[in-house]
Please model this.
Amino acid sequence: MALINIEYGSLASSETMNSNFQYLDDKISEVSSSFTTSISSVSSNIATVNANLTDLAETLDSTKEELKESIENADSRIVTTLMLPDWSGCISISKPNSYKAPSNGYVLINPQAQGSGNLIVNGVTVYLKYRGHENDNSAQLVPYPVKKGDIMTCNVKITAVYFLPVVEEIIINNEEENSNV
Amino acid sequence: MYKYAKITDATTGLCDVGLGTNEKFYKSVGMSKIDVSQGFDGQWYLSEKINNNEYLQRAAEYRKNIFEKEFFNTSLGWIRREVLMKDGSSRNFLSDLLLQIKAGLEMGINVNILTYKLPDFTRELSDDYIITLQETKSATPEFIQECLMQTVTDWEG
Model:
């Protein structure tokens, strides 16, 4: 059905008029229907956006909880780091003068009973043994900690000197990881 | 024996030696597998160096020095300064026993003492070897006199 044009000043039949009214009525219905459909679509989109926003908020909450839990777990898992002796790397030192520590570790000195003198590490002098009696019972194996690169000199008469490297051991929930340091 | 080692004195063959099994660590500190032997003084030496005359001379001198610190000489033989008693304790011969021996002699008692022959310093001075050098002698007034003189020598240095 199409709109019938009525010439200005002429008389139109009731059929033509009714036809035109019918056309207009159809058009109004068509526009109304289209408008309703559009509103419906927009509403649907808004609902989808709302739903997505809700999901996102829930995901953020969940992630935040997981992150918090992970941090707490990490805090409780790493208990401590220990420096432990590695006897498999023990070295018998032949000359304890200007000895450079090859890694972090301990210098073990067994002085002679009748010797006396000092230990000098990086220019810092500490008393090692001040009694020089031939039956000095304090002449036992003594450990001194050193770090890699320290220069050590022992001017006490010695029976033996050893270098004992350390391994760094990290304890994680009863699991142990270690590596030479 | 072959061990991870590093030569610290090329003349004497003295070495730093890895005593453990951590090959990775020993390589990382510049050691390599070398034929070494533990020497007279507990130190480690290149095996090729430990039987030459110089080494044997130093070893004998080292053992002689130790022996002369632990023993003193008398006309009856060498006397151990620190005497191990049967109950496991040790006594100093000059400060703890001499006056008792002297008192025994003055009372007319025959006091036997352990003396030692001079060791062969080219040998290891093990306890077993030292025991073979023991001789039992009777203390005399001259011996007491010598021991007292030794005390004075120790005192004066």
